[in-house]
Design brief:
The chain is built from 9 helices and 15 strands. The chain is α+β, with helices and mostly antiparallel strands and 371 residues long. The strands form 3 sheets. An 8-stranded mixed sheet has the order 5-4-3-6-2-1-7-8, with helices on one face. A 5-stranded mixed sheet has the order 9-10-13-11-12, sandwiched between helices. A hairpin with a 5-residue loop joins strand 7 and strand 8. It binds adenosine-5'-diphosphate and magnesium ion. Magnesium ion binds next to helix 2. The site of magnesium ion (MG) has 5 residues, from helix 2.
Length: 371
């Protein structure tokens, strides 16, 4: 008898889903991005038991049309991309059509949705683990979509145990991610809450539909966060260096919409005299073209420059790198948070020089009122 056999479809779906939804962070990231893609101006994220029991994301976006109910959670079904060519001109966060189908396979999952034209009448959608629509029911629902993810990883005992063991750290990471979305999303109200078993519902933080990132930062971190903040507005002109891959450099130079190789670093940073008296990396937010992402090398470079002016403290950083979409690749990891910058060496060098110049020009005396 043959010992090599095909894995059944259900197991394949579960294994692949586990690569898209790897932790609490990926659940929240996918759902918040779906809400932003749906044009929401208000997003509420409600955790129960730090997310172990339930994660709910409610938005006031455009809702899901009845003719899409059957396919909304099917794998590789998306309203945002129809061919590979569309990838280069993508303006939405999502494009793979994998998040909802993966959540069906890994949690107890359902959706409530209503469009503006449906009045206050919405639908509850229930799904099979495969993502196929199991049933619908009429419910009262305001315009928008609420996604419920209960008992994440309930059918993967090892993952579930791991999640339970690390829940404090995972929950902390998720709140950090939500800080990033809330600060960068101008015009979108965020409200984040958590309810522990038998406890009261606690507001974690909330923002209003502010018109500036600065107002968002005040809502998230308090007015004290603004103390001594310096506007970041660096214009970097990049020359490829020996450290950068010439192949990638060429790709960028020839494919860039205007052939330019400029990067702008926009946002806010603490003046060197006003850093935080601890390793405050929870107050360092990085974005590429407004997408929250991990940029460990950029973070290291900024912290290094800062340390050369203030050895004892760490800065608050809100840095959005605005650059040609051919200058990086977001498609390297399923969570799209790991970004490959093609000309990283040149970028880091230029950024360090420019930041040093900014700090050199900054008034380093502590105002009397702050002493
Ligand atoms: P993707 O975002 O890559 O398209 P998802 O699995 O995250 O894939 O979502 C599948 C589809 O479901 C989306 O393309 C969109 O049409 C619809 N959808 C998901 N979430 C929402 C939402 N909050 N509001 C409206 N439509 C949504
Ligand atoms: Mg999505």
């Amino acid at each position: 008898m043959a010992t090599i056999k095909a894995i059944d479809g259900r197991s394949v779906h579960q294994i692949q889903s586990g690569q898209v939804i790897v932790d609490l962070n990926s659940v929240v990231k996918e759902l918040v991005e779906n809400s932003l893609d749906a044009g929401a101006t208000s997003i509420e994220v409600r955790f129960k038991n730090n997310g172990l029991d339930c994660i709910e994301v409610q938005d006031n976006g455009k809702g899901i049309a009845p003719h899409d109910f059957a396919t909304v959670a099917l794998k590789h079904h998306t309203s945002k991309l129809s061919s590979y060519d569309d990838l280069t001109s993508l303006e939405t966060f999502g494009f793979r059509g994998e998040a909802l189908s993966s959540l069906c396979a890994l949690s107890k999952f359902h959706i409530l949705t209503a469009r503006a034209e449906d009045g206050a009448v919405g639908k509850r959608l229930d799904f099979e683990p495969s993502g196929a629509l199991k049933g619908t029911a009429v419910v009262a629902s305001p315009k928008g979509t609420t996604v419920y993810v209960e008992e994440l990883f309930h059918n993967l005992p090892v993952r579930r145990k791991e999640l339970e063991k690390n829940i404090k750290r995972e929950y902390g990471k998720v709140i950090g991610l939500l800080h990033a979305y809330a600060c960068i999303s101008v015009g979108v109200r965020f409200a984040v809450s958590n309810q522990m078993p038998k406890g009261k519902k606690m507001t974690v933080f909330s923002t209003k539909s502010n018109t500036t990132t600065k107002e968002n930062i005040v809502n998230v971190f308090g007015t004290k966060a603004l103390l001594g903040l310096l506007k970041l507005d660096l214009h970097l002109e990049l020359e490829p260096t020996s450290g950068s891959s010439t192949q990638n450099a060429r790709k960028w130079a020839t494919h860039g919409s205007d052939g330019s190789k400029t990067v702008q670093v926009q946002g806010h940073i603490s003046k060197p005299i006003f850093g935080e008296g601890r390793q405050a990396t929870d107050r360092q937010l990085f974005f590429v073209n407004s997408r929250p992402c991990f940029l460990p090398q950029v973070s290291k470079a900024i912290n290094e420059v800062y340390k050369s002016f203030n050895v004892t403290q760490s800065p608050f950083i809100f840095a959005n790198l605005v650059m040609d979409t051919n200058a990086y690749d977001v498609n390297v990891s399923p969570d799209k948070r790991t970004i490959l910058l093609h000309d990283q060496t040149a970028l880091l060098e230029s950024m360090k020089a420019s930041l040093t110049e900014l700090f050199d020009k900054t008034d380093h005396t502590v105002p009397q009122s702050q002493l």
